[in-house]
Every structure is written in C-alpha cells, then in structure tokens.
C-alpha cells in the first residue's frame, strides 16, 4: 500500500509517494505559493500527479502550526494565512482521498521513529533544532498529541524564569537558548567580546552569522570561541532533556534540524549537561542521544505513515 | 466483574474489592509489616479473605517505587526492602490470580482519571503533594509509563539549576519547592524571620511544624505569613505545570495529597503562576486546576482498574 | 557659602542656588536644548543669572551618563550627544567658576544622604526607580565612585542569567525586573491574562499603561492584579537589595523615583523579599527601607554639595 | 616604624613584625589554643616576644568572624568561642599597645592591596577561595567596612535563588558554587557520573577528594572531567564578579586561597564568564584578574598595616 506525504515548508512543498517500509518511490517539489487557495491547488495538483503514476491510498499533510486534537483543523499557522482552517475537509474535497494533518515537527519525529534514528524504540523524543525548535514525543509507540493537539511543544519549555522574550509571547522559552538562532546569538556575543571570539568574528558573513561549515572547521581546530558557543547551546539542550526525561522517560533523544549537523561536537556536551541535570535514581538507565538520519525527508515520510495509520 | 486493589503504604496496607464503576464493595486495612516475606503473606491473606466473599478476577498492587516497563519487577522501593524484586510473579504464585504492579502515584492518578476528578478527560496530569511529590500523566486515555517505566516522575523535574539537594541524588528538584515538606520549610523560614511570620511562629508545634488545620485557620484570617508560605509553594507548582503543559498538553491538572486540602487557597496562586509561565499561544486553551476527589482511596481503586485492563 | 547645582534632565534643566544646609535659595528651569553647544550656553546663562543675584562659590553639574574617575569627562551619555566630552573644562571656561560633574543618580543619592532620607547614616544605598534604575552608594560617608567612575550601577546587576535583554547590551539586568518600565510590563502581562488582571486592563490608557494614580487606587482596594504586579517588582528589588547588603552592608536603602511614590505598598513586599534573600548571620542587623524625601530636587541639591566638597 | 600583625587561624597563630614596606622582619607560629583565655595569653606572649627584639608601635589582630563597625568587638566568630567579645580592649590591656581587629579576609585583601597583587590600584576586590569564600573590597584606597562592619561578605552573595543551603542559614550563596568545597562537590558529581569523570574517580583519595596536585596534573593533560569541574566553579566565580563590577567597579580582581593555585586554569574560564555577565557599556574598561602573591602572609602583613593606619 502506498501513501502520499506532503510537507509544506516556508519556501517549498515537497510531496512523495511512500511505501510501507518508508521508502520514497517518487518525490516532487514546487515553490510554496503565498495565497492559500493557490497553495491548496498546488497540493492537489501534486497529489493528482503522483496518483496518476502510483496507486495511492491516503494523503498526509504536514505543516508548521497548531492543529486541533482530531488533526482536522489548522488552528494557527505561523507562516501561512490559516486561522481555524478546516484543512482536512478542504483537502479531502479537492483530492478525493482520505487526508490527515500533522504538525511538521511531529511528522518528522514520527518519520524518524518509524524509519530513521528512532527505529526499534518504544519511547522516543525528537528535538528539531532549526531556526526555532520543534518537538515530538512518542510514548509506548503512539505519537503524543495532547488535549488541545499541542503536546510536545518542547521548544517552549520555560527554560529561564524571567528569560529572553520569545515570539510565542512568553519569555525564557528553550527555543531562545537552544536553536539555530540561539547558536548565532551566542556566537555573536562571543565574537563581539574579542579574546576567544576573534576567530569567530573573522568568519562572520555580511549578514552577521557564522555559516555552519565555518563553525565546523573552527570546532575541528578546537577554537575556544566556537567550542564555547556550542557548549552553551548544548548545555541548554541537555538540561532541558533532563526535564523531558523526568516527564516522558524516553530511551532515546533524536536531535535533528540544521544544528544537528554539528554531530558529536553538539551531542557530547549535550550528554554532559543532560547527565548533570537528570534526576538521579541510581540504577536508572539514561537515554541515548543520536542525530536524525532522514534529513529533510523525515516529515514527508512520517506524515505519509500517519495517513496510513489514521485512515 | 470485580477486581482487588491493594495499596501498600508506609504504615498500612489497604485492600479493597472494586466494581467496574470504581465503587469499593469492601475494604480492609492492616499495618504494613517490615519484613518483605511477612508483607507478601499479609497481602496474600488479605486477597484470600476478600476473595472468600467476592468473585475476584484480578489483583492490582500499588506501592511507592520504580517498576520496570512491563510492570512485573519492582526495581527499587524507597521504603521497603525490594531491589529488582519480581513481585508480579511472586504475588501471582501466592495469590493464584493475575496480578499487575503499579507505582502508587500512577495508581492514584489513574483512579482519579477513571472515577474521580479527571473523569471525562482524555489528557490529564495528577500531582500528589504529600511529604514528597508524586506524578501521573494520562495521554489520550493511556497511562504514560515510559521506556524504563519511570515516566511522570514530576516531582523530580529540575526546577532550580544549582538548587536544593534532593533525596534522589540530584539537586533543584520540584519536590524541594512544592511538597508538604517544602511548605513546612517555607513556613519555618517565614516564622523564623519575625515580622509577618509571627503568627506562624505562634502556631508551631514542638515538632516545629504548623499543622494543616492551623494553617487553614491563618489563611482564612488572611495572615500575611501564611499567605506568603502558600504562595511560594503554589508559585513553584504553577510554574512547573507550565512546563508540563508544554510537554504533555493536558486539559486538566488534578492536585492531590495532603497539601491539596488547602483547596482554593492553594489553587488560586497556582493558576496565576501557571498562566504566567505558560507558553502563550494566543488562542490556546489553558488547563483547569482541580483538587482530587477520591482521597486515600484513589490508589486502591486505580490499581484495581489497571488490573482489569492489563489481565 | 552658596553653591549652584545644575541637574540636566531629558526634557528640562533645573538650576538652583543651594545653601550649606541643603536649602534651595532660588531655582530656575529651562527646556533642555538638543544641540550640545546650545545646552552649554543655557547652563552658562543659568549660572550667570543666578550668580548675578547670589555669591556663588562653585558649580556642580549632574547628568545621566558615565563620567570618568576624576569627574571631569563625560564618557558616554545616553540622551545627549556627549562622547568623551571634557565637560568640566568646558564649563569652567564658560562659567569662570570651579565645576564638578556627577552622574545624576549619584547626585540624587548624595542629596538624600546629606539632606534627605539618608541623613545621619554612614553607609547608605539609594535606588532610583524611574523608567530605568539609577543607583548610588555611600560608604563610610564617601560616595562610591569606582576605578572607572562607574560604581553603583545597581540597575545593571545581573539579576537573571539568560534574562531579558537590556539596553546596555547585557541581559537579565535588574532594570528589566524592577523599574517603572518593568512594572508596566508586569501590569501588561497580568492585564492580558484576564482573571485577576481584569481591573488593571480596565484602567489602561490608550498608550497601554496604567497611570500611577490608578495603580494606587487599585492597591488601596486590594485588587489582586495590582498587588501581584507590584509584588513582582518588589520581589526583584528586595532580592537585589539582599545582594547589595552582602557587598556594601548599608544601614539604609533609600528608594526614590516615580515608582517609590507607591510608598509602603512597594516597600512592604520589598522588605519580605530582602529578608528572604539576605545572607542570614543570625544576630546581624538588617537595613531599613525608606522612600526618598527630596523628590526631584535631590540631584540639584546633591551636586551642589559635591561641588562644595570637591572644589 | 614597625608594627605587629597577628593572624589567628583555625589551627595556628602566625605573628610577625612588619616594616612599612610590608617586609616581615621576623615571624613566629604557635598552635591555636581552643580555650579563649589560653588563646589571648598566646597572642600576648607572642607580641611580648617579638617586642623584646623589635621596637613595635601597634598590633593588628586578624581572625575569621564578624567585627563591629569600630573594629573593637568580635560579634561572632565561626571557629572560636567569641560572642560580642570586646577583644580590642582585652588585647590592649594585656599587650599594652594600641590594637585593631580585622576580619581575616579583609586583612588579606588589604595586604594584597598594599604590598601584593593589588599594589598600585585604587579600587580592588579580593576573593579568597579556601574551603569557603572570603571577600574584601577596597574603594578609592579605603577598605570597605559597612554600616555593621560586614561589607564585602562576597561569598554570601546569593548566587542561585532557591539554591544549595549554606552554613550561614541562607541558601544559594556563592560559597556553595565557587569555593574549595564547591570544587570538590563538582568533582564528585562528575566522577560519580562515569564517562568524562573516570580519571577524576581514579584520583580520589580515601577521603573522597581529588588533591590539588592531582587536579593540576589532570588539567595539564586536558582531562575533560577536570576541565569541566574547574569550568563550573570558574563560571560561578566569573558571573559573580560581573555583579561585583556593577556595584564596586574595581579595576582588579585578586583571587587568593588554595583554589587560586590552579592559576590560569582557573582564571581563564573565570574571565570568559565574567565578560559574559558584565553589564556591557560598550567602551567600558573591564577589570583584570590576577592571583594573589603574598600567600599565607597576606593577612598578617595586611593587619599590621591596618594597625599602623588606625592607631
């Protein structure tokens, strides 16, 4: 049985036909239209195109935003003009197939759980460190949804009381301390301070950021400024994972998103901070930390699998 | 169908025959033996006694401690000499009926979810404020267990980095800021400071604590010291619930245990702190806060129901 | 002996002839020119005018900004275009009398120490809660200046690690938690949250703030939202004063600025937080908290007295 | 002119004849008697002995404890049975020369300021990292005493709200995060955690500590566990120094005590944390960090100099 996964990102829509084992049989990409009508048409056309060549059962659509508990209504999307939009019904009418919606971070988490870094686990947490932070939690093999459909908003764990203001209206959210943007903020602070920041400063682009490749180079040379910047973000991430452990008790943390490309340079200080802040029950096993393996396909694959399960 | 619930506490064992609707048909109580063999005999005798008068299907046993993922082995119990004890197999051999184990806080949470304050919800968090703190989480109608059987250890959320040492070996755990013991510590701090603490000081017993009834009296008279002590504990509790909301997204927080007897005097400042620290997603619904309704029977009733479900 | 004090504020310049006992013999006010040349001319003209009617010895000039250790050069001023400006030499050339410079918060602190709420003490801390926070410290009868002229920048004590960004480039400064602006932020948070914030919300002006008079009214009626907003600011203030006590050991905290007009409604919760966070040496005396008594004249009177002492 | 300095430690009394330039002409040592009478006799005998060979002007006595503002009465001493003891009068009667008292950390700070690492500065802070933390502050060339004689209790800055309990009765004091004892606690935490702590664990003595020489060895080999332990303590120290800068504005931090023997391994991460938490006024100069140079003689030399100044 084949299902289609659609991952609506800020700049492009990716759609793919996904087999039961998570293999992508065929994948298409188009730019994301700004107009919501044009966007729906683009999704419908993409599904129609794929379905003309493959026998498709159901369709899963992943996008950033808050989705109601029944996965039918997009309550609020940060990048697209959807407010209380009954997307599932609209898409089903246009596409003529069963549709499910899912938050993009949840879709990616489910993809990794089923076919990627989380395969074989029962209780897993995925943290996607992009510009912001996305979260997903799997408990006893089920995706955690929550009473209002907003469980696992892990980037909005309040990490510092009275902390940095967050776009969500709250302050001190983890996202302000462990994300791609937070990493660049730490880099800027250290670069501006001179001393150990001098090499970071030299690698800043006109836009004021240090590109990932440059950062990896500096880390490989044990540059003190680069190590310090990553250590700060990793410390926040690891301490937050200690909190997630107390609540969710996963066996595995999967770290994804662009920041996760730092690999062990990120994971090693993360584990130290995690172990430091983990409620210490003596014999208690600790969770493993791994990086995601499906890259940008995780959401597409995951939401296709959720479509299969829910329809 | 009737099931038996056994709640092994620090000082007594309560056992009851529980109907499908949570009604306790008959209940017995005996002191808790120190010796583990005598304890097992007491449980078996109690079940035998109850089963001689009722048609019993299965037996659930609740006790404080860490229980493996399969709910068969007590990994570590704080009050009883059980280390990696295969209690399920032992009890089944002695009792001759299917047995399940559950952590006492989880059992109480499940009891409230099914038959008490949480009835009708799908996603609920229960926090039991006794001497320490117990936690339970229900997600989409299932009790959250975790990869190692230790999910919802809500009292061991790290609340203050570099905070008060906790009996678990970690520091800064919520239990050190929001529990019966934490409340008495705040009371002592305020009483010792003179000023607004003078009436609290006057109500201290020889053991150095202010009994609950005295505290309620002072609260009813708007004593500034008593209000401040409760506010501190409620602030910690409410802020932690903001974190639990971000992760678990319950519709309901049920507050139980002895401290919950303060009722609205506790819940009102808790809600203020919760709302202050809740990731603010605009339209997002907030959870309700209620006190538990089953009292000391929650664990017994809950574990009997879990026995029914699991066997 | 008479001296002139000049207090250059953001909107007006106040100048006065001050007697040895702190009495203001005559006072003038003019708007603050934007141009630095015009500003200097206005100060010179004001001094000339006053000196035509009084026998003036020396002149003290107070303004917001960082002033070098010798009190001769304005290193950086937040509101006026002075960078490394040798103001003392310039003013002395224009005025023909000895001149001293002082930071405005220090001038006000010295004024209160000599003639206001701090009279009779030897070690005093003044905290001015205006839009931002100003600080001054007197130790054994001397104004604390510091190696770089920037001691007693009390508003920039780091109060929350990883906290709210501050205009000074740092984050988590006390000014972001205890100041007029911080108070309005807490009010806004509480008002936006509904519940106990409903009356605060009703008193908001078009500019989104709750005027001081309205706030005092609500406090007098024990409005829970107003009490909570003030309590938050007072808690930050009181905890910071605990830190200042450990370092400076004053016998007196004088609280000035617009927020101090809340009087005991502010001071009472401040004292509670102070005592809670004070290093507790048993018998150790605690400092008193009082509000300033000289109001807007404190800076003018203080800097005139400093002119006398230094010239 | 020669003066005598007496430094009463927990295990021994050191006494020395000190020249105007801080040179110790002759030094004696005796064990510290437990009995306060015997202790006073020992001090008097030591002074008598020294005075028989040198022309001595005045005597300074340094000891741990809280001393009144006039430096005449020991209010409370942690190690010796002195409570409100009029030591100055007692010693003067026994010794027949003018006497001053000083807190041991203040005496050491004054010694370093006048003759050691702080020479040539005007505003200096000294932090002595022994088992606990001692502090001293010099402002514009004067030792900061405070209204109650207890200024510069820098180890009791509240560093973590709700933090580790401190022997002073308060919680979260800096001493619990940056001191010799705190360093050993971090070492123990890391050693117990396995992983990067394995080499630390291997170097633990029967008493459970890692001796300084072993720690220096591990640091020289870039052992990750040792680096992490020191980094934690240095981070707390550096952040606290950011707070001291905002209040006292020194040009120099002198770090003394046993932990300071780690030298640059301690100072380098301290500077990073200091700069991170320093209120950032752009052009503002930052303070230098150096280690103390007088070692155990600092207190004796400092209190002799204070005796000269005060008598």
UniProtKB/TrEMBL annotation, chains A, B, C, D:
It comes from the Bacteria. InterPro entries: ATPase_NBD (IPR043129), ROK (IPR000600), ROK_cs (IPR049874). Gene3D superfamilies: 3.30.420.40. PANTHER family: GLUCOKINASE, ROK (REPRESSOR, ORF, KINASE) FAMILY. Belongs to the ROK (NagC/XylR) family. This is ROK family protein. It comes from Microbacterium memoriense. The lineage of its organism: Bacteria, Bacillati, Actinomycetota, Actinomycetes, Micrococcales.
